[in-house]
Amino acid sequence: MKYVLLLIIIATVFFISCEEVNNETFYEEAPFPDQPVFGEKTDFIQYRFNEQDYSFEESQPTTSITAIDRNNTIRFHYDRSEETDNPMQLTFTVPKIREEQFGNDIINNSNVTFKPNTGSIFAVKAQGNDLYVGGSFGTASDASNDITATRIAKWDGINWEPLGQGLNGRVRVITFAPDGVMYVGGDFTRAGGKIARRIATWDGAWSSIGIGFDGPVYDIAISSTGETYAGGEFIASGTDTLNHIAKWNSASGKWDSLGNGLNRTVHALAVDNNDILYAGGDFIRSGDAINVRRLAKWDTAWSEVGGGTDGTIRDIAVGLNNEIYIAGSFTASGSVSTRRVGVWENGSWTGFGDGLSKTARSISVADNGNLIVGGEFSMAGSVEANRVAVWDGSGWSALGDGVNGTVHAVETVGNDVFVGGEFIKSGAITSNRIAKWNGNWSALGTGVRIDYTITAGGQLTLTYLTSVGVGGTFKFLFRNNIGEESFISGNFLSHFE
């Protein structure tokens, strides 16, 4: 009997203890520290922005931090600022946690901040004293102002300027005709509010070029006589079949095919000093059944160039002596080792030392003949070169400490090298996707970015809280200032120290 009584007493004490743990008194008396205590585990995070999906599971425990402070306030802070390509920050606060909140949607959108610091530059082009950049961004910032610049902007050496209303889709290429008119290609369907399907011109106002294309334009090349070529992922212009490449016919106001085109995507175009067109990309044949492994030449008909390459060509540049430089993900051109960068000259291929450790995405020839290459690599030959490197005719060298994210575009102007891409820092300088090298790195204002605002639909549900941890689920919807919707959602279960 006494053992039964003892069990009843123990059970009663246990019940009272549990009751105290489950009411508000528990939270008021919990030993919260003066500073927030940070959690060490997040089960799953997923998000979508910049038109891509991402997810992280437990293998990325440091990407998410949950904190609870002495005022019973939970702060969830998700920070990927160490990630080079798509850094972001999300913070939301739930004041005065109470048990009745658990299992309910308890967040108020006003308590949420979202700072993804994202965006990208895919095109960089100099004209006179000005520099033009295009990509996926909505804001350009100089020393004192944030400028609304939708996917394209001009840097005059001091300030950023918009080009009208900009474009409604990603800009992938900017180039200039001999008469100074700018040509722009990409994923857009409107320029300055006007219909312009994937290609447009700017001469102080936006204009379309014919009826455009049914798919993205990745590159544009213009000859010394003004012949205009476009290449990309498109198949047709209106009812005219083109197959990835076309030439503008100003007399008919239509895009003409070059033979029967090419059988896969064209990523790069260049016109040499004799106005002969070169195309590079993923293709392996022309529409006329000519074998042209990723590099082809057009001179009234398609022909191959030195056996082509064994991987995708991303960019082509013409040298001072009419050499054809290529950059991409290939490792051989013809039978010659050309790891991601090579040159076709006097009927043969040549590589550059041991080449690059990963994909090259842009290539430019400087006035002194040096070759500047940007991309995804971390090594150029045996030299550590973070995503940008220079070949001086005898070996590779780095541009300082390089940049901390992919380089998509390189432009040389005299002794200046401009690079654009997805990086945040160039060397130790915060430059946000565009930077200049002239013996040292410098920023152009504070660069470009996409700004996000929270839309209706933000949710946070608490499902777990004790003195050692807190957990739940969340989902927030966002709209950015270039008209795209995004989200971040996941499950979190953070254990406190």
Explain what you see.
- With 497 residues, the chain is mainly beta.
- It folds into two domains: 121 residues; 330 residues, Methylamine Dehydrogenase, Chain H (7 Propeller).
- It is 5% helix and 47% strand.
- The chain is built from two helices and 52 strands.
- Strands 2, 3, 49, 50, 51 and 52 form a six-stranded antiparallel β-sheet that branches.
- The longest helix has 20 residues.
- The radius of gyration is 28 Å and the shape is globular.
- The N terminus is likely disordered.
Please outline the major beta sheet: 6 strands, antiparallel
Q: Which fold name is given in CATH as the topology of the largest domain?
A: Methylamine Dehydrogenase, Chain H
* SS class: mainly beta
Q: Averaged pLDDT, please?
A: 83
The number of distinct helices, counting runs of at least 4 residues, comes to: 2
Supply the CATH superfamily name of the largest domain.
YVTN repeat-like/Quinoprotein amine dehydrogenase
CATH architecture verdict of the largest domain = 7 Propeller
Oligomer: single chain
Catalogue the unreliable spans: 1-45, 54-66
Shape: globular
